[in-house]
Each structure stands twice: as C-alpha cells, then as structure tokens.
Amino acid sequence: MSAAATTPVPARPKKRRGRRNLTLTIGLVVTIAFIAMAAVSFFYLPHNPNVPRIPDRLLPAGSPRYLLGTDALGRDIFSQLMVGARTSLMVGAGGALIALVIGTIAGLSAAAFGRIADETISRSADIMLSIPGMVTALVLAATIGSGTLTTILALSAFFTPSFTRVIRSAALSVLQEDFITAARLYARPTWFILLRHVLPNVAGVMIVQFTLYFAAGILTEAGLSYLGVGVTRPSISWGMMLNEAQQQVGISSPLAMWPGLSIVIVVLGLNLLGDGLRDVLDPKLARRTS
Amino acid sequence: MSVPNAIEVVDLVVGVDELSAVRGVSFAVPARGRMGLVGESGSGKSMTAMALMGLLPPGWQARGRVLHDGVDLLTLSDKALSSRRGRTISMVFQDPMSSLNPVRRVGDQIADVIHRHMGVTRRAAHAQAIDLMTQMNLPRPEQLARAFPHQISGGQKQRIMIAMALACYPQLIIADEPTTALDVTVQKQVLRLLNAATRERNSALLMITHDLPVIAAMCDTVAVMYAGRIVEHGPVQKVFRTPRHHYTRGLLDSQPTMDNIALDGSSRLHSIPGMVPPLHALPSGCAFHPRCPAATDRCRTSMPEIDATGAACWHPVPVAAPAEAAS
Amino acid sequence: MPVYIARKLAFFLLAVFAASVLIFLLIRGAGGNVAAVILGKDATAEAINALSRQYGLDRPLPVQYFDWIGNLFRGDLGRSFRTNEPVTDLVVSRLSISIPLCLSGLVLGLLIAIPAGTYSALNSDKPVGALIALLSQVGIAVPVFWAGILLSLLFGVRLGWLPTGGWTNWDSNFWGAVRSLVLPVISLGLILGASLTRYVRSAVLDVMNQDYVRTARATGMTRMQALLRVGLRNAALPIATVVGLQIAELIGGTVIIETVFSLPGLSRMILANVAAREVIVVQSTVMLIIVFVMLVNLIVDLLYGVLDPRVRLTR
C-alpha cells in the first residue's frame, strides 16, 4: 500500500466532478437532439429527400426554401440529413441491441455454467473477434444483398463477441460476491441467481456498452453505406450522402461537409454520454479506462 | 556537533491544495541511530516518509527543511534527488508483492541499483548483487537471481527489497511497515535481518509502523504521530514506560498482552474511543481532544507544543501512574 | 514457453478452421444456390445447372469445402466466373498495395498514440493532458473516410502537394506509388492513433501508479528513467492486447480508405466482386483477409509471451 492509499487523497474532487457532469450533459443533449431529429423525420420533412428537382440543383446553404442547400440532383440536403439520422438510429441502435441481447445471454452463461461452457463461448467469441466486421458485412452483402436489414445483421454479428466478453467478466466479478454465495447456500437455482442477482448488477455495464456500441454502429454503418454495401435508396444514410457527393461533384463540394459533421457530432455525443454514464453507473470500470 | 545527523527534519508540512497531512513535524535521526515513528493509519507517518524521499503523489507539496548529507533535500531538483535516492537515503516499502518490477529478474533489479550508483560494470554489479543476496540469507542466490518476482515468496521479495535498499551503504534507511504484508512467521526473520544488516552497514534506521513491540525491540527513540503532528517524542524506554500524552497511553493500553486478553468478556484490553479525524475536518486546538479523557476548554482552543515532558499536551499523564509496558 | 507457443499455435489453427467453415456455410447457406446468385435473377434453370456442374456446386457440401480448403493450401483461390482469370494472380498484385497501406497505417497509429497517450497520462491534471484526451475523443468519432476526404481536400485540392487518388505501380514509378500512399496512410494512422491514444493513456496512468514504479524512483531513477525503463515496458502488455484487437478494425479502415483514394487494392477487388456477385472470389479473398488478421493476432500473442514472464513461465 502506498502512502497515498492509506491516507485518503482528495485529488481535486470538485474540478473532476465538474468535468464529469459536463461530459454527461453534452452527451445527453446531443443524443436527445439526434433522436428528436430522427423522430421528427417520420412526421415532417421540408422536402421529399428522394425526388430530384433538376432546376434547383446544387443550391448553396441558406437558399430560400433549402436550409442547407441541395445536392447534384436538386434534392434537399437537410431533409436527407433528417432521414439519415433515422437510418443511423435504427441501424446503430438495432445492431447494438441485438448484440446486447445475445451477448448478455452468452456472457452470463459463460460466467455461470462451468468451465466447458465458458471455454466454448469464450473461444468462439475470440474467433469471431478476429473476423473483421467489414468482412462479415461484405460477405452478407454478396450473398443476401445489401440493405438496412443486412447492415443491422452484420453489425450485430460484429459486436456480439465484444459484448459477450464484457458481460462475462462483469458477471464473473459479481458471482464472486458474498451475497451470491449466500443465495447459493439457500439452494437457489442458477437461472434464478442470474436473473435476480447478477443481471441487475451488470445492468450498468450493459447500458454503458450499449451506448458505446451504438456509436460504433453508426460509424460502421456510415462506412458500409459509403462503400455502397450498406443502406440503399430510398433509405438514406450519411455515409451514402458522402459517397454521392464525392462521386457527383467531387470532394471539394460543401456537400461533403454536412453528413461528415453530422456523424462526428452524433458519435462524439454518444461516446461522451457513454463515458459519463460509466462514471455514474460503473465506477470500477471507469477507474480502469479513463 | 560530534555526531552528525543521518537526517534532520524541521517544521515539515506536507499537503495538497488546502489540506495538510503533515502539520509541522520536527525530528532528527543521528548517524547510526534508530528511530521509530508510530501512529494509526492516516496519522501522516507515511506521508512524512514520502516527503523525505521526495516521492510525494502528484499535486502534493512539502514545506520546511529536510537536512541530509549536508543539503536540504526539499530544495533539490528531481535529478539531484535521484542521485541520492538509493545511494545515501533509501526506503523499504510495505508491500513487497507489488513493489518489484514484474518483468525484470530480481538479481538484475538489485544489480541495477549498484550499477547506477557505484560506477561499477554490469558484471561487477551483478556479482555484488549475488553477494548481497547471500548476506540476506536467500537460498541458492545464483539461481534465485534469475527468477522473476512472481516466482518467489513474499518473504524472499522483501529480502530482495532490503538488499536493494542496502546495496549502496546508505546513511539512512526508511522502512515503512516492512512486515505488515508478510506471514507472521516470516515477519520476525525479516525484521531481524533488517536490524542486523543496517547495523553492519552503519546505516541509520527510521522505522515506520503501528507495531509498538517492534519499535521497542529495534529502536532507540520513538516519535508518536497523531493527525499530522508528533504528539510525543523521546527515548523508547521512557515513552513506553511513562507515556505523558494520553494518546500514547491509549495506544499502549490497547496493545494485547497475555495479561489483558480474556475471552470470557472480562477483557481489560482498552481501545481509544472515537476515530482518527479526517484531514478536512481536524478538530481545533489539540487534535486529540475529542477522544481524550483529560480534555479541557484549553485543549479545544489552543494547540500544545512538545515541552520538557516530551509530550505535546496541556495536561500530561502523571508520571506516578505508569502504563503497562508494551514489551 | 514451448507449451505457451504450442497452445497459441493450436488455437490459431482452430480459429482458422472455424472461420473457414463459418465463411463457407455463410456463403452456401445464406445465399441459397450459389450458381443462381452468380447468374442473377434472370438466369434460366439450365444455365444454373450447367454452372453448378462446371464449378462442382452440385457435390455434397463437405466435399466442396475440403476441395476449396485444399486448393487454398496450394495457393489456388479459384477462378473468376466472368473473366475466368485465376483469383490468385489478381490478388498478389493487389496485396502489394493493401499490405503496405495497412501496416504503415498501424505503425503511424502507434507512433502517434504512444507519445501522445504517454504525454497526456503524465500531464493528466494539466490542460495539455485534457486537450490530448479531448482530441483523441474527437478523433474516435471521425469516420476514417471523412478524414480521408478532408485530408485530400487540404493537401490534394487546395495545396496540390499530393495526389487525391489513383495509383502507379511500384515498379514503374516507386516514388509515385509512395506519394499515392501518403494521404491514405495518414488518414488511417490518425484515426487509429486517436483510439489507441486513449488506451495508451490509461495503460500508462495505471502503470505509473504501481508500487514498482515508486520502487524504481526510490532506488535512484529520475521520473523520465522510471517512465522509459519501467513504465513503458510494463504498459506494453495491455497495449499489445489492444493492438491485437484493433487489427480487425484496421482492416475495415483499409477497405474504406482504398475506396476514398481509388487505390486498386484487395478490398476494391472484393467490392467489385461483391457488386458482380462473384461469390467464390469473395469467399476466397475474404478468407485470405481473415487468415491475415489471425496471423497478426498470433504474432501479438507470441510477443506477449516474450514481454511478460508471468505468461511465458507459468502457462
């Protein structure tokens, strides 16, 4: 034990807590704005984002009727961004959610059902981790064709092993606690212990990981759609918009700015939210990784 | 000045931001002397040691003077301090399990210190390291030197740590609870080794512990710390036989001996009521007054200094009522 | 150590086998009839049957699998359906772009992350440390292709220093080839470096708080010596693990960045084949990538054994 550990060291608590709250607040605001933008797109869009209007093509931002201007086919940029938010939300959250569900089941099983289950699940997760997500997506696109659903499937396949590992190690540390031993002494069945005691205690980890993989999912989806193997029209993706901007008018166009900025802001917001939540919900993990 | 001091500490204050863990501590360890520093966790004894070594955690500051080898250590740069650490002043830490570099062979870790400070070749340093390991009563030193820390026992690790601390014949060794993390059976051997080896090398010893019998057995003088201050200071025999500060007395009374332990509930083993105050809520006046049986208004308002009694107390324990000896 | 190596090798072989079965089944299972997929919606039943027979797709699945694997071992990746070119020939020239791109990106990422992460860890309570942490956080949120687009806007279009795309062969114009790779490598390295910085930072923070670093200082190392000789050496262990995990991510980035800069690398070939529904070519090249990733992971694992005596000597 160092002297610092035996003496309570008040390492500037005020300043750090302030930074933490700021992180959480910024993350929360950005995330809510993003979800709101996606939600509104279902009820209201300034223009139909898929209908070309050649006379209005390539208008600059701030034009009357077109807040952020139009693309090479005269489609409204802002409306496309709104529908793109919807896609990011669906694909990112969908992929992360499926991975969360499968990963939690697998991770809890690995932690609770003995060595053989653990070895099998952990090794499988290791193997899947070394298959690049991009590769999975490409294979799926080649066989069942690209599209929103394919992208969600690819993402969940990509994220599941990481979730499994995180949940497993969190569950293992919960299972070592004394109250679990007590529950076992009362001859509670394993599934009961998992549901009643372990799950609530790894819920914090689950929420944090979900947020972080939500962000990663948005990035990956944008990449796939940029390559043309992700989302296809009439769905719209920010990555797809960047691809079209680059192909139709060259990269110097301001068209390449808006979708890129949107991705950065939303992903940054979600990551900040995840980090902020981690400090609140999972202090043990926060100390290790921040 | 017939005997120069191995270290002399004057008005040492150690703190971070507004908080102070050490609040004006002064003492001296003469060359080849052996002093004990006692106190509960949080009394500031470890912080004192880290300040002497110049190894305070980030953000912590030390004020006052720490005179050693003709200089004030607190005024030295990190580089100048580094050339003394391990050479003229060295330290043995509490937890040998985590104090050795896990990816370097233990023999090399000792040899590194010798090579760094003694200006000898790597080969010579390594031979000296093996020599040193033999003196530390480590079995088969050539073989053990090639081991990594995780391959040897806790007692062996602490012997390696002591070897590293003694390697350059330092004027002063600070030992911070060197046996707390070890098995009881090993503790005594390690202490005996530390005692003998420091004497052989004419090194002074500053022993930091909450284990009073260890101090009684090894040290000439003892300083008792409470809430960042030395509350009693004097020769071991005097302090332990006739404690003048109520805190010292409480500490001695709470030592289990064969006489005062009884499992039938009639135990005469005392404990000091209350708890060590946290740094940010130190009581006014004498910091011990909320727990002190003899506290008066004066104790609540003004802080006593150490006087002729050897204790910093307005109402010292009468000499006529000796406490039970600790050893 | 021999036991450790043997274990890691065995796992590598198992992983390659499992992944190959997975890819094979995915292609055969998810896509339905491969010949029908290749020929597209309008193909007649006779044409599909003919193609199945020509490619041996009518044989039982295990036979097809071992045939495929056997050919892979002999370096035969199959033939393109449309051009009838051997895939192996196509792949080799493209690897001469993809592999340098990918590995340089990794090296650049480490060259950025190790100093930046270490510096920000050592100055974690100063503004500089917070700034580096913030930059790394932002960098993680930037899609690698957008970084590529912005960089080619600045250095290609505005300043005109470097090509914004295209490729000349190593043989015909070596420096031209290098110039073509500069921006792609920087894009990859920056983005990878941003996320690695975070891990390096936390590894160094963690290690520098360890008791053995304090011991190193107490025996006469300066702060810098303790960092370089003891701290980084120990921080290398968690960093190696993270680098291994990031390889899969890096491959994804390489695929995208080749598209951004129109580099005719392996991934562009796969993309073209995905679009053309050349299922067998995709299957083989994808397997090649997976083996590459697993190989890098194996190397990282073995490196770990060298770096950490606890792993080497006890397991």
From TrEMBL, chain A:
<dbReference type="GO" id="GO:0055085">
    <property type="term" value="P:transmembrane transport"/>
</dbReference>
<dbReference type="InterPro" id="IPR000515">
    <property type="entry name" value="MetI-like"/>
</dbReference>
<keyword id="KW-0812">Transmembrane</keyword>
<dbReference type="Pfam" id="PF00528">
    <property type="entry name" value="BPD_transp_1"/>
</dbReference>
<keyword id="KW-0813">Transport</keyword>
<dbReference type="InterPro" id="IPR035906">
    <property type="entry name" value="MetI-like_sf"/>
</dbReference>
<keyword id="KW-0472">Membrane</keyword>
<keyword id="KW-1003">Cell membrane</keyword>
<feature type="transmembrane region" description="Helical">
    <location>
        <begin position="255"/>
        <end position="274"/>
    </location>
</feature>
<feature type="domain" description="ABC transmembrane type-1">
    <location>
        <begin position="85"/>
        <end position="274"/>
    </location>
</feature>
<protein>
    <submittedName>
        <fullName>Peptide/nickel transport system permease protein</fullName>
    </submittedName>
</protein>
<feature type="transmembrane region" description="Helical">
    <location>
        <begin position="22"/>
        <end position="45"/>
    </location>
</feature>
<feature type="transmembrane region" description="Helical">
    <location>
        <begin position="198"/>
        <end position="219"/>
    </location>
</feature>
<dbReference type="InterPro" id="IPR050366">
    <property type="entry name" value="BP-dependent_transpt_permease"/>
</dbReference>
<keyword id="KW-1133">Transmembrane helix</keyword>
From TrEMBL, chain B:
<keyword id="KW-0813">Transport</keyword>
<keyword id="KW-1003">Cell membrane</keyword>
<dbReference type="GO" id="GO:0016887">
    <property type="term" value="F:ATP hydrolysis activity"/>
</dbReference>
<comment type="similarity">
    <text>Belongs to the ABC transporter superfamily.</text>
</comment>
<dbReference type="InterPro" id="IPR027417">
    <property type="entry name" value="P-loop_NTPase"/>
</dbReference>
<dbReference type="GO" id="GO:0015833">
    <property type="term" value="P:peptide transport"/>
</dbReference>
<protein>
    <submittedName>
        <fullName>Peptide/nickel transport system ATP-binding protein</fullName>
    </submittedName>
</protein>
<dbReference type="Pfam" id="PF00005">
    <property type="entry name" value="ABC_tran"/>
</dbReference>
<dbReference type="GO" id="GO:0055085">
    <property type="term" value="P:transmembrane transport"/>
</dbReference>
<dbReference type="InterPro" id="IPR003439">
    <property type="entry name" value="ABC_transporter-like_ATP-bd"/>
</dbReference>
<keyword id="KW-0067">ATP-binding</keyword>
<keyword id="KW-0472">Membrane</keyword>
<dbReference type="GO" id="GO:0005524">
    <property type="term" value="F:ATP binding"/>
</dbReference>
<dbReference type="GO" id="GO:0005886">
    <property type="term" value="C:plasma membrane"/>
</dbReference>
<dbReference type="InterPro" id="IPR050388">
    <property type="entry name" value="ABC_Ni/Peptide_Import"/>
</dbReference>
Automatic annotation (TrEMBL), chain C:
<dbReference type="GO" id="GO:0071916">
    <property type="term" value="F:dipeptide transmembrane transporter activity"/>
</dbReference>
<feature type="domain" description="ABC transmembrane type-1">
    <location>
        <begin position="95"/>
        <end position="300"/>
    </location>
</feature>
<keyword id="KW-1133">Transmembrane helix</keyword>
<dbReference type="InterPro" id="IPR045621">
    <property type="entry name" value="BPD_transp_1_N"/>
</dbReference>
<feature type="transmembrane region" description="Helical">
    <location>
        <begin position="95"/>
        <end position="116"/>
    </location>
</feature>
<comment type="similarity">
    <text>Belongs to the binding-protein-dependent transport system permease family.</text>
</comment>
<keyword id="KW-1003">Cell membrane</keyword>
<feature type="transmembrane region" description="Helical">
    <location>
        <begin position="181"/>
        <end position="200"/>
    </location>
</feature>
<keyword id="KW-0472">Membrane</keyword>
<dbReference type="Pfam" id="PF19300">
    <property type="entry name" value="BPD_transp_1_N"/>
</dbReference>
<protein>
    <submittedName>
        <fullName>Peptide/nickel transport system permease protein</fullName>
    </submittedName>
</protein>
<dbReference type="Pfam" id="PF00528">
    <property type="entry name" value="BPD_transp_1"/>
</dbReference>
<dbReference type="InterPro" id="IPR000515">
    <property type="entry name" value="MetI-like"/>
</dbReference>
<feature type="transmembrane region" description="Helical">
    <location>
        <begin position="235"/>
        <end position="261"/>
    </location>
</feature>
<dbReference type="GO" id="GO:0005886">
    <property type="term" value="C:plasma membrane"/>
</dbReference>
